[in-house]
Here is the input.
Amino acid sequence: MLRGPTVVTVHGTGTKGISCCCCTCCSCLNLQILKTEPGIVKLAELLLGFFCQSLALNFGAQYSSTIGVSFQSFITTASWCLMTTFLLLLCYVFSQKSYGMLKSSLFMMGSVLGILYAYDAYKSYKYFKGHR
Here is the structure.
């Protein structure tokens, strides 16, 4: 018995890659993540991190000896936050599966920790001003 060629049809979602004319290029990229709310938040974090770091380096470097260790700590924190956000965004764009895995990890606890840090800073400020 002779058998003809097997035709395999792949039904994609059509949301991956870059559509140009009649074909899709770079189908390994998941650019649709940049249109979702978490993708927009990651882009905003990336811009804010770049903004903070560039302001500190352009306008704070001359006062680093006056500011002391706080300036170096801020630059280090801003650099690591910028790098982490960039790497997470890169993972989200290149792997749709990593988005689901990383979203449920400890990286998303940052907002809870940020609120806790803001409360601690507020209480420290009140203590510093003499409201005990």
Remarks:
- The first strand starts at residue 18 and ends at 20.
- The helical segments are 37-59, 64-67, 69-94, 96-103, 110-128.
- The chain has a mean pLDDT of 79.
